[in-house]
Amino acid sequence: QVQLAESGGGLVQPGGSLRLSCATPGSIFGAYAMGWFRQVLGKEREFVAAILRSVVGSGTTYYADSVKGRFTLSRDNAKNTMYLQMNSLKPEDTAVYYCAAKIPGWPRDYGSSGEYNYWGQGTQVTVSS
Question: What mean pLDDT comes out for the span 82-89?
């Protein structure tokens, strides 16, 4: 089965930065929607950021209010890789982070994990002093 592959997680102090990567097979990278979610043990998977393809330009990005202004989602089309740059990290950002893709078609709700049918294995991000 096709898998996405996250990397870049780790331990960082509050206020620090990390960049997560999501390596994606070419057949998946063309998805209309790709996103990042996170999950804390015992809680539901939470929307972090998503990018929707557009006819013109590189696409439209969306962010959860909790990360807006601190996290940036980007894509490198040449490398079939999606990134999540995380700055000004807080202890409450601690979670396992997952990348996801939806194929085929557009999601009705880009913030719903149930819309996405391809997932990576997750990478742990721990923000602690």
Answer: 97
